[in-house]
Structure formats: C-alpha cells, structure tokens
Amino acid sequence: MKQSKPLILEKPGFNIVITLFTLWFSFFIDSLLENFIAYFLILTFGIIHGANDLSLIDAVNKRNSNTPIPFYSKLRNYLLLVLAALLFFFFFPIPALVIFILISAYHFGEEHFSPKRTNLIFFSKHGLFLNYGLLIFFLLFSCNLEETNTIIYEITKTTINPLYYYLGLFISSMVILLYFCFFMYRKKMTMYEGAKQVFFLLVFSILFKTSSLVWSFTVYFVFWHSIPSLLKQVTYLYGSTSTPNLFRFFRASLGYWLAALVGLTLLFFYLKDSTLLLVILFAALASITLPHVWVLNKMMSSNQDYSKQN
Q1: pLDDT at residue 268, rounded to an integer
Q2: Contact 5, 305 (CB under 8 A)
Q3: pTM here?
Q4: CA 282, CA 84: separation in Å to the nearest integer?
Q5: Cβ distance 276 to 39 under 8 Å?
C-alpha cells in the first residue's frame, strides 16, 4: 500500500532540515517577530496535537471495552482534571513545576523512543523515557540560564543555582550514555542507531545554545514532538495519515484550538510582555499536560501498531 505524503514529516531527515532552517531563520528576524512565530507554532501544531484527547479516549475505550462513555461525562472529567492541575500549579508552584517537568520529560522520551518501547523491559523502558526527557530539559536550561531563571522566578519566586542545571545535565547525559551502551551490548540498538541519537543531541545542543529559550523550546516541542505525535494519533484514530484523515482530525480539534488561539493571541498583543506571556502559556501547557500524557499512554498501551511506527 502506498504511503501518504504526510508521513515524510515523521522521518528524522525532515526534523534535521527544519531544525537547521529555523536556526538560520532566527538570525534574520527581531525578537518580537520571533516570539510571535514561536507562540503561533505552539498554538497551532503544539495545541492541536493535544486537542483531540476526548476522541482518543473514545477510541481507547472502544478497543478495551464495549461500554461507551457519555460525552458530557468525558468532558466534565477532563475539564475537572485540567482545572485541578491549573489550580495546583498556581497555589503550589514549586512542587507543580517539578511534577510538570518530570511528567513532560517522560512524555518527550516516550514519544521519541516509541518505536522501540515494545523491545524493552519495564524498568529500562520507563527509565529511558524519563532520563532522555530530563536530558532535553537540562540541556535547554543550561544553554539558556538567564531566561530560564527569569521564568522560574516569575513562577516560583525562587532562584535556582545554575550548578543544579549543569549537574542535572551531567547525570542525565551519563545515564543515557549507559542506556545506549547497554542496549548496544544486548543487541537492542545498533551502532548506527546509537550514533544517530547522539547526532540528534548534538543538533539540539547547537539549537539551544544559539537560540532564545522560547525559540529553542518551540522548535523541539513542535517539530520533534507535536507533529510526530499528531500524525501517530491520526493513524490510531483513522487508520492512516491520508489528507482526508488529517482534515478529519483537524475538524475534530477545531473548537478547542480556536478558543486557545484567540485567547492567547489577544494576550500577546495586550500584555506586550514576553516573560509574563510565557509564564501564562507555561501554566496553560502544564494544566493540560497531565490528562494528555495519560491519554497518550493509554493509546500506546492499547495498540501495538502505534508503538511500532517510525
């Protein structure tokens, strides 16, 4: 069967090319335009990739049970979970921030290594996902110390010693290196695959070091996480990433996406404060991360075909 064109977006070669292009492009635009494009990408591909969770819950439920869940019941429970996460974030910012980073780190690693997840035992699988995501975060933070500490201070009113970022980067790097060596020793990963993963990390290092925190996070979050995840969700829901199926996915996400896009775009023009806007955007992303990660984990666990995609 002939594969549809959108599957090209999932190939590592596309990610590398688009990452280098965004790195080059950032040198020719001012910070205001760069932030606007970054927020636009997050509010389109970034938000849409998590905007169809209710449909995914339906699909997972149909595969695991014959009992349908009423729409309003799903919507109520989902919104209550998002609201609880948002309130927890604002009333207990420090533990909420730590939990958000840990959950997001696991989610990033799970998406990145999903094709290999069925070949790993429980401990090594989940340890790999968490430590890889932490490596991405610590690399991002270490390359953008001033901006990172500004955002964290706005959220928690606490200043973090930069040594903690470097220590986290060193530990997570060593753990991932040990994982790769162990997998290659046990024939779970070839030398080529290991070298490819190291090359990806090198590309991330160049991007994070030469770009702003917002731009760096956007490029990774959108092109290395959101788009691959979105395409896999389309395949899970509709069987393939054909153009009609992509439109079906976007139509199902349209209401949620438009509400988020309009609201945060108005905030962008009203606040004119990139730091405050980033804090609000960060809080919004944090509040939807927990239910989204839970839904995606259920989706991958219920369908072996998803975990085998590349």
Answers
A1: 61
A2: no
A3: 0.82
A4: 16
A5: no
